[in-house]
Design goal:
single chain, alpha+beta, six-stranded antiparallel β-sheet, 6 strands, elongated
Length: about 200
Amino acid sequence: MKQSFYLWIRDLHLYFGLFISPFILVFAVTTLLFNHTWKPWDHEKDVRKMEVSVQVPTDVEGVEQAKAIMKQVGVSGEIRNIFRRRNRLTIPVMKPGQNASIQVNLETGMAVVEEWDTDLWDTLMYLHKSPGPHLAKIRGNWIFTRIWTYLVDGVVYLVFFISTSGIYLWVVLKAERKIGLIVMGTGCLTFSAIVSAFIF
């Protein structure tokens, strides 16, 4: 029974690690891009602009109103915010590969829609930040953002499992205990030194 448990943990450790590896790579690469404010190449912004007549619903407000306008102008994605100033409503929208801005004149019912494509690096950084800690009341208003959120939460739980199962596998393998202690001790010392530098 003990051997069977070990084999189950070993296999799950391996296959869960393989499953989350693309997600970890995305976060690792984009962390470097964020830390160094650098991209391997720049993408030329080509803005497409059009004017569309829309019917602004008055029976709903906020996200639902913005979604109704987006449907009329043919724009989809995550609503980043909603700005309303006097007779003008501005809706910035983002999704992997494309950004948009919708400006609606509430008096005339005319909407100015601007769309532009983003490159691979912007797309990866969007996934890294999404859905983000801000605007909790409206975030996750796009179905694919919610799906991505669940996937990322799942990846975090699997990282916890892989970490704890890795320690278990190391403890079971007697031949690896000495080198494991050295590596884990070095990691703990490095982490403690960094935390101490920030605190003190």
